[in-house]
Description:
By secondary structure, the protein is of the alpha/beta class. Helix content is 33%, strand content 22%. The strands form four sheets. Strands 6, 7, 8, 9, 10, 11 and 12 form a seven-stranded antiparallel sheet that branches. Strands 15-14-16-17-13-18-21 form a seven-stranded mixed sheet, sandwiched between helices. A hairpin with a 2-residue loop joins strand 10 and strand 11 (225-234). The longest helix is centred in the N-terminal third of the chain and has 21 residues, at 124-144. It binds zinc ion (2 copies). The site of one zinc ion has 5 residues, from loops.
Amino acid sequence: MNRDPALNVLATQADKSLKVEKLSELPAFSRVLTDGSAGALLKLPAAVEKHVCAIETGVKRAIILYDAEKVALVRPFISHLRGKLIAEKFTFERPEIGCGGGVIEHLIENSRTKTDNTDGEEDPALAQSKAKEIFESWVALAVQERATDIHVQVVNNIAEVKLRVDGELEFLRDQQGGVYTPLQAERAVAWAYNNASGKGSNSNSQFSVGENLYCMIAAREVGGKRVAMRYQSIRGWAGIKVVCRLLYVDIDAPTLSYEQLGYALSHMKQLKSASNTPSGTIIFAGVTGSGKTTTLKTFIETHPGNGTDAFYSIEDPVEYPLRGVHQIPIQRDLLDRKGSAAKYAEVVAGLMRADPGCVLMGEIRDPATAISAQQIVETGHMACGTVHAHLISGIVPRLTNEEIGMSRDVLTNPNILTLLVYQALVPKLCPHCKIGGRLYQQGMSDAEHVFELLDTLENRFQLERDLFYFKKQGGCPHCKHRGTAGLSVVAEILTPDRKWLNLIRQGKDYEAMMYYRSKSDGNFRSENMDGKTVFEHTLYKALLGEVDPRHCERFDSFDRFEIMNDADRAETACYT
Length: 576
Ligand SMILES: [Zn+2]
Ligand SMILES: [Zn+2]
């Protein structure tokens, strides 16, 4: 992790003699040199050891911290410490840093816990219950903040706990500001793996730091919501990293409508029309965490055949309960691709005899899943699959690459591809504190870029700067200082027709895309998304003041986006 911004903050803080208020604001360090333990390098009188200390920030490098509220008390000890450290051949990275009340005390406590624990004299049952308490407190806070992920990572001998809220990672807002000792964090994630995991889902029987581990943590009640978790640990040089994806799995929760998810009316028409098609493949594309599972859930639960036709899903593992769907868990082994493919094919073969109305097949990622999709469709059924692709234009190249190996001839047979959906999630602006384009000022975060962007929007797109709103850095109390308020889907949806398939069959992917786009009304401010790209959908939401226009840049650049004119449209008519 790049800590430079934090260091800059500290540098300016030192200049203005501001102080560090949270442990997480401290620069990276490897240990506290004055924690009063037997192994401590330097000893301080008990009366001051919670008000002044030295931390080791590198090889023979240190920083002295002092309690800014007890300056008179600690001043003599600062020079005492400095002298001792110089005698030990330490150099100083920066002048002493003043700290808010409790910061140093906390630091010393953490450091002692760490030292005590390595003594191995602690009661293991007590350690377990502490670990549980810590992990559960993270989950409770995460659910309260409606976070999608919990990240626990050991960096430079401290453990950082962060939540992904509205698409961005932020430090856990608990009393310690999301900073723990590596031992505390390791025990907490080990406890979660060993005790809370759903039966049969773990990749390994016991937690171990040296391995990448995966499991599902079974659903339970947290803060009035039913939450399951997908747990993945990734070993690393500095220590472990664990990511827990939170899955809100309340079976009684009402199905979210496409509108609630953020789809446009014209998108909904295409989705509904696809669900009325008796056979074919519907592809949902997007990266991990793009919300495509939630959309699939809406698609299947609002499908007109739900309840009358037999719906099946093949999942590795089952994550969300789906209403009206017979969900079949299947565990694939990453190391045994052939065995996994055979297992998958066997399940599909069974389904073919079970009169499926619709099969949710999970990710199409290898020849086995691709062939299964083809079988389902060719026997007159409906298949829904996800594809890891960026944009609609990435779907066919992905399905036809070496890894999956479908041929363009098969893919472009009429009635194979029914609908292509690409979606992503963008944060919604907090309506209380968003900043109008006209009010954006020099000195605000990212100002240069915002001004450039507003110029481009005016000159290239003929869209006035008054129309746009931007995220306020630091937000307001309404949005808990995030500047954002939840996430919204942005999407592009393509219903293949004969001409589009024809172009794709010949490998004319660019022409196919331009042909799709020629159906758009060319008006950035109209709600009709037919023929429009996800860039245009995001721009439309920006024009409504719902999202920051900078999010468009995830999909295309404002300078290069091809604005189609009538001549371009006319040209696509000549494509064959
Ligand atoms: Zn407000
Ligand atoms: Zn706000």
